[in-house]
């Protein structure tokens, strides 16, 4: 169901801004109003399961339309076996790109981003939604330095899941333990819940600090074996990060999911509480 009588032909693309295994994202503008938007194009030439996943993503986005911490869903259309999802355009780009451009971000910028993301996670989890793919590429920035979650393609409305979802380097140990490596869709009998988003956020913090996620110097298959077997990533003592930064990362990256801090608890940590304004982040976008 769309919010207006527009069709996808009322939008004109001005370039590709991202792509993944499921589709591409374009910057576009509405021909009549000139409004800039992001359009996610998802080909439906695979399976009924893929179609169900896209429709589930749209349902979740509709549920989150009032959130200030999620890139807003505007409409969707289907044409020529492609589903187009029209979203709010965030001109600051993804945190992954911003981090790469600057060779890593400062603690203050990371804290500003985390504060917004955590507020979004609190909203998600309060509504029974688990994102399951939090990473720098799925956090976008507005021109005002507001961070917003995007890409709910593998999100779930179940409080407990047993399937593997997300991007391996950001996956928590409980999702990968016992997993066979020949497929990214192996179903496990190991349940996991909203705690997966907290682990992924902790990995994202390290990603933004170093402009790459931990273990990315290893082959994907090797990293997937290592994550459930080795100690959680930690901040090197010689890296020069504050005690507050290290404590925040440690609170996210507990091997036992039940020992991880909740999003609400993380918002009360000094690393987040000491941040004021968005000036440092606005300078980067």
Automatic annotation (TrEMBL):
<dbReference type="InterPro" id="IPR008271">
    <property type="entry name" value="Ser/Thr_kinase_AS"/>
</dbReference>
<dbReference type="GO" id="GO:0005524">
    <property type="term" value="F:ATP binding"/>
</dbReference>
<keyword id="KW-0808">Transferase</keyword>
<dbReference type="Pfam" id="PF00069">
    <property type="entry name" value="Pkinase"/>
</dbReference>
<dbReference type="GO" id="GO:0005737">
    <property type="term" value="C:cytoplasm"/>
</dbReference>
<dbReference type="InterPro" id="IPR011009">
    <property type="entry name" value="Kinase-like_dom_sf"/>
</dbReference>
<feature type="binding site">
    <location>
        <position position="40"/>
    </location>
    <ligand>
        <name>ATP</name>
    </ligand>
</feature>
<keyword id="KW-0067">ATP-binding</keyword>
<keyword id="KW-0418">Kinase</keyword>
<comment type="similarity">
    <text>Belongs to the protein kinase superfamily.</text>
</comment>
<keyword id="KW-0547">Nucleotide-binding</keyword>
<dbReference type="InterPro" id="IPR000719">
    <property type="entry name" value="Prot_kinase_dom"/>
</dbReference>
<keyword id="KW-0723">Serine/threonine-protein kinase</keyword>
<dbReference type="InterPro" id="IPR017441">
    <property type="entry name" value="Protein_kinase_ATP_BS"/>
</dbReference>
<feature type="domain" description="Protein kinase">
    <location>
        <begin position="11"/>
        <end position="272"/>
    </location>
</feature>
<dbReference type="GO" id="GO:0004674">
    <property type="term" value="F:protein serine/threonine kinase activity"/>
</dbReference>
<protein>
    <recommendedName>
        <fullName>non-specific serine/threonine protein kinase</fullName>
        <ecNumber>2.7.11.1</ecNumber>
    </recommendedName>
</protein>
<dbReference type="InterPro" id="IPR050629">
    <property type="entry name" value="STE20/SPS1-PAK"/>
</dbReference>
């Amino acid at each position: 169901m769309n919010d207006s009588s527009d069709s996808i032909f009322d939008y004109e693309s001005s370039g590709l801004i991202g792509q993944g295994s499921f589709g591409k994202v374009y910057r576009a503008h509405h021909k009549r109003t000139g409004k800039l938007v992001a359009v996610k194009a998802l080909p439906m030439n695979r399976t009924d399961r893929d179609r169900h996943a896209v429709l589930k993503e749209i349902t979740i986005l509709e549920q989150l339309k009032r959130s200030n911490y999620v890139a807003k869903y505007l409409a969707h259309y289907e044409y020529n076996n492609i589903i187009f999802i029209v979203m709010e355009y965030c001109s600051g780009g993804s945190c992954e790109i911003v981090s790469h451009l600057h060779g890593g971000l400062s603690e203050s910028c990371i804290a500003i981003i985390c504060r917004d993301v955590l507020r979004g996670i609190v909203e998600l989890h309060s509504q029974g939604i688990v994102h399951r793919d939090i990473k720098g590429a799925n956090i976008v920035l507005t021109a005002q330095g507001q961070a917003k979650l995007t890409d709910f393609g593998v999100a779930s409305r179940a409080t407990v899941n047993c399937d593997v979802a997300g991007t391996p380097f950001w996956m928590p140990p409980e999702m990968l333990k016992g997993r066979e490596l020949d497929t990214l869709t192996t179903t496990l009998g190991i349940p996991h819940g909203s705690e997966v988003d907290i682990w992924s956020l902790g990995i994202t913090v390290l990603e933004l600090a170093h402009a790459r996620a931990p273990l990315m110097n290893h082959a994907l298959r090797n990293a997937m074996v290592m994550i459930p077997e080795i100690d959680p990533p930690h901040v090197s003592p010689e890296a020069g990060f504050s005690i507050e930064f290290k404590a925040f990362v440690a609170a996210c990256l507990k091997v036992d999911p039940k020992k991880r801090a909740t999003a609400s608890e993380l918002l009360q940590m000094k690393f987040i509480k000491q941040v004021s304004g968005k000036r440092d982040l606005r300078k980067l976008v």
